[in-house]
Amino acid sequence: MYKNQQLVEVCFSPRQFDLYKGQFDICVVIDVLRATSAICAGIENGLNSVIPVATIEEAAEYQKKGYIAAAERNGEVVEGFDFGNSPFAFMDPKLKGKDVVLSTTNGTQAINTAREMDVVVIGSLNNLNALSDWLIEQHRPVLVLASGWKDKFNLEDTICAGAIVDALIESHKFKSEEDSSIAAKFIYRSAKENIFSFLKASSHRRRLRRLNLNEDVKFCLTPNTSTCIPILKDGAIVKLEHEKIATQ
Amino acid sequence: MYKNQQLVEVCFSPRQFDLYKGQFDICVVIDVLRATSAICAGIENGLNSVIPVATIEEAAEYQKKGYIAAAERNGEVVEGFDFGNSPFAFMDPKLKGKDVVLSTTNGTQAINTAREMDVVVIGSLNNLNALSDWLIEQHRPVLVLASGWKDKFNLEDTICAGAIVDALIESHKFKSEEDSSIAAKFIYRSAKENIFSFLKASSHRRRLRRLNLNEDVKFCLTPNTSTCIPILKDGAIVKLEHEKIATQ
Question: Which of A10, A46, B162, B231 is an S-S bond match for B240, by CB 3.0 to 4.6 Å?
């Protein structure tokens, strides 16, 4: 066995964050449907930064100052905003080099919860392998924070969290001790051959299907379409340049 | 499809209870290792009642008044108390007809959290089929509350909760909409052929193995050794007499 194994654990919702934090250096925030998938897509496609804010009011303040602002609540674009959290909106070539302010139901709340950690990076199924490889390279304790749905457990974030745990443990450089991490890894392994079909019954899939957002769902559930790792720096999410964080 | 399906959902920890409550009539509290298994064993074996209290201090107060009092923290009997939450202690023939005050790390906290619901019953793997059959008979919305470990998710309570969801949904009289319930059912179905081995990696199994409590674990993980349904009445857990709750 590898001698100096680091912990990788999963927290199912921002509400549980205080029970898990403390012993971790790096936090991976996940909101597969759709905030963190959209952030990955945007940063990969040349956005300068995404500025995550908790409330609609804060997003509106930025908008008044001339920022491009996006806001989503309950799966829908909030009235008065340029767009919501559809990854396709974030891939618009017109956004290249721009900063976009974003407020969503779950994802940006989770990012705000994670702010107190040393390093906060953005995870999705889209950047799964690139992110996992980078985490293994860092070899520091990792907490994967699922955004969930309004503080509740959700399946798609758990599957993505389980995929990261699985990859890190396979490297033999990491171990998990929490039951949440064991469950997430187990659910991922059961789902991985067909995540789209596994999630058919999930509550958020149903919610987005009602809103005719199946194309978004397909995009978000496709692993490894991106090699981009978005990272939080001074309140804005930017592209990680692959220097070692540890040596900063 | 059955026309008037009722909800059965799973809440992974007392900390999440307020997010789920509200729309349910019956709460099933589960702490497989070991509080609710011990309560089932005690009531099945002739205890008059178990009085659940949150703190060690309350348990000590009852003890001063002459009650038999049991208290467990972190898997161990609290000094000065008659016993902890081992099911075998609750099956002692000398306890027949007696009332036992109990305070544990997780289970009695969860029971206290659930108190505000119309009906609170005690679930374990030991009384799985009897309890599920009774719940189906009631045909009212059911919330299964896992006690977890210090407000965190745990695997053994999730498996038991999933087993109840599975049985209720199989009756076609119930449905689940929450992702937590879907995940619990899925984990139960994967684990059910050999729960003991499935839980080998779980955090609480490790904890109890260190304390030489493997016999307790085996007892608690054996389904359907009891037909007893303990129910909370006026602050004490007593044996449910099989009248219909709905007609009370």
Answer: B231
